[in-house]
Amino acid sequence: MSSFAPSTLNPRIKNVQYAVRGELAIKSEKYRDMLKNSDHGLPFDKVITANIGNPQQKGLDQPPLTFGRQVASLLEYPPLMESGKNIFPSDAIARAKELYTEIGSIGAYTHSQGVPFIRKNVAKFIEQRDGYPSDPNHIFLTAGASAGVNLLINFLISDDKSGILIPIPQYPLYTATLAQYGGIPLPYYLEETERGWGTSTEEVERAVKKAIDEGVKPKALAIINPGNPVGSVLTYEEQASLVKLCEKYDIVLLADEVYQSNIHTDDAKFTSFKKVVCDLQSNVALISFHSISKGVTGECGRRGGYFECVNVPDETVALLYKMVSVGLCPAVGGQIGVDCMVRPPVEGEESYGLWKKETDTIHKALAERTLFMAQRLNSLPGMSCAPSPGALYLFPRLHLPEKALAAAKEAGRTPDNFYAIALLDQTGICVVSGDGFGQKDGQAHFRLTCLCAGVEAYVDKLEKFHREFMKKYE
Amino acid sequence: MSSFAPSTLNPRIKNVQYAVRGELAIKSEKYRDMLKNSDHGLPFDKVITANIGNPQQKGLDQPPLTFGRQVASLLEYPPLMESGKNIFPSDAIARAKELYTEIGSIGAYTHSQGVPFIRKNVAKFIEQRDGYPSDPNHIFLTAGASAGVNLLINFLISDDKSGILIPIPQYPLYTATLAQYGGIPLPYYLEETERGWGTSTEEVERAVKKAIDEGVKPKALAIINPGNPVGSVLTYEEQASLVKLCEKYDIVLLADEVYQSNIHTDDAKFTSFKKVVCDLQSNVALISFHSISKGVTGECGRRGGYFECVNVPDETVALLYKMVSVGLCPAVGGQIGVDCMVRPPVEGEESYGLWKKETDTIHKALAERTLFMAQRLNSLPGMSCAPSPGALYLFPRLHLPEKALAAAKEAGRTPDNFYAIALLDQTGICVVSGDGFGQKDGQAHFRLTCLCAGVEAYVDKLEKFHREFMKKYE
């Protein structure tokens, strides 16, 4: 079997790290399997999956939005448009018929950028959101935002001196993809305060200058807003300042805006970078990513999303088309999901009432859970949890006793990874340790999602573990 | 807009070529748009899409298989499992319920390798096909076969002296992906005779030795069986000989077997490379790709497929898992499509009769059309068309007059591209010219699919064009 041993492989592969589905997640899957046997011998009776933003996962409580599922179901089996007249609301049938006319069978490849009609609807959604025109020919439907980010990083890394500015902590898709393409991650640090996590233009500029000093070209600035894992929401002023920085240094702006509809407080307000770039009449090249996996849609399994290119030359758009054409097209089920996300039922339509009720419930549950969990975690000794006005996560900081640090070192683990493994082993709660996202030297955090049903029992368990852990190593 | 101009991009991107969705396809889309206006001024009234194996495309006549669509429809909207009892057959409801129990909501991310239950079903399908065990943990569900090929080529290209043996003519996914990852395509030439296209081990070994002489490491041998674009089907002896060659030179075997169920003649028989490797008790590392986009399923838009790893070390499988985990999971709709492909209704089940009728009809239509078209094209002056016992295409050779070659040169095009552009401009028939697949120097071919309905009228049109073209340049 020598011909396909790891030693013969692309060495960049070995550098790829993606903690969200790494050791902790794999171990939790094993525990889940073990729990199927009654004599499992584990100190818990269920695994609580808090490691990944997967709202419709078994055991979590976010149901799919009915309207989008009805439309998808009708398109899977078009005879239902007649035979299901007593089952489906008329607006779902009308939408399905409209899409069927445009797409034909959902079993056919579409245009590689996505169905033109759906791209036009995305453009209208963007125009309504921002008040500026959007060009459907500069929109690419993708298999979730991840596929788009991968494509863009592949484009931007032109040699081994190409870097991309990434927030620390960051969603590890960025470092993983940079490792895959041999690009250099240029970390800028987010600032953690009691009021939340902040992004400062000065800090980003420091990272830009450091890169230039070291002979590295900062090709792009990746910003996740609302933030993952930190849940921060940028202010308009912060965004304007960051756009000007990109202009100053001729840097492409990669705006990961997949959590744009997950806003939990009245103080926080999402503004798209598209709007800021247009307001400023800036010529900064911007790629803005969106997804159906998050928000209230939560349709991770469909793999749907899009990115919009703003101030990107036509020749570059043509090259993007060429590259996506090799993969033929994004899954049509995901494309339909995008259509339903950007064109939800509106007031007066038969499905509006239910859609409103479903989305209100999801928004409310997320906001309440996020607030509740942050408060509870904040009250624990050795833990501080900055508020998270956006996205789906908390990223509490651990202040661990010396003995715990020593035990972690002994075990060959970072302190937070040591903590997270113990948490999983003892309670079945699966989180991701801060080392998977990056953090300042010497710090320890973990990320947990705010998606789990039965949040009180879950936080009780976590608290109990934490107090015992602190006591054990005090 | 300077910051994102083509000159600043990864230079490998510019080398990527994918003719199947290239200039001809883009032009055909423009014609399709123009035809929506009554005063379009074009010399034809419809575009005939013969450039891509997309069976369910508008205007072609391959319908989806009912059973798979019913299952998918039920999983999109689970309340139908009750409310649709009078609409859906009981076995489709039972299958949907079984999958729902295993998967939960299809809106959730699954295991990154694909739903474990579906992988077990794939393993059983492989075991039944080949008579050898298959390990679900060494199976990866993918977004069509293309995503799997991309992943493997990314793995195999370890430096700028890594090459992959590819057939010429080839499906351009291979050269496109090699260009993306900076690998070296090592062409071996298929032999065109009146009896069909052949693959000779001697020719592959010539290419291996040439590479080694030039300091290039042949990392893998890509074989497309049944062939694309040439429609050949390897004999068992040819396959055994190729496996031994891989053994001799320690080469990974990439077996693209997506057309395994598209066999049109009684003489031709598909044998999987998995079976050959097992029969020979060979230790060759084999990756075998399959897809729901072709065969009788034809569900391109779902983006479903899988690959099986045979004789691949566990450590390498773990690295493959790590890489796919960054993309989270293949679309669940595609995974369900794979389940229905490997577990079709069986005799005695309610849906079996319809499934049998649908698949028989598709097999028969493809076989008849392929034979009919090859005969008609073969009778033309300046064209010869080898038989195509497998896959979905014909790859006729053009023997063009000197004046046509001169006109092509004048136009700055290869002869076959010049021909294909003229064909599209004058008849609306979109094919792909041979230069998109590669061919021996000085030759000219084109690929056309055998999927188009109304094949007589279509071939009449093609014939008329061809005779006029030949006459014009005689």
Which keywords apply here?
homodimer, 474 residues, alpha/beta, Aspartate Aminotransferase, domain 1, Aspartate Aminotransferase, domain 2, 3 domains, seven-stranded mixed sheet, three-stranded antiparallel sheet, 44% helix, 14% strand, globular, Aminotransferase_I/II_large (chains A, B), transaminase activity (chains A, B), PyrdxlP-dep_Trfase_small (chains A, B)
Overview of the molecule:
Two copies of one chain form a homodimer. With 474 residues, chain A is of the alpha/beta class. The first copy, chain A, has three domains: 177 residues, Aspartate Aminotransferase, domain 1 (Alpha-Beta Complex); 31 residues, no CATH class; 234 residues, Aspartate Aminotransferase, domain 2, CATH 3.40.640.10. The first copy, chain A, is 44% helix and 14% strand. Chain A contains 17 helices and 16 strands. The first copy, chain A, has a seven-stranded mixed beta sheet with strand order 2-10-9-8-7-3-4, with helices on both faces. A three-stranded antiparallel beta sheet of chain A has the order 12-16-15. The longest helix of chain A is centred in the C-terminal third of the chain and has 27 residues. Chain A is globular. The interface between A and B is large, with 94 and 95 residues. Chains A, B: Its cofactor is pyridoxal 5'-phosphate. Chains A, B: This is Glutamate pyruvate transaminase. Chains A, B: InterPro entries: ALAT1/2-like, Aminotransferase_I/II_large, PyrdxlP-dep_Trfase, PyrdxlP-dep_Trfase_major, PyrdxlP-dep_Trfase_small.
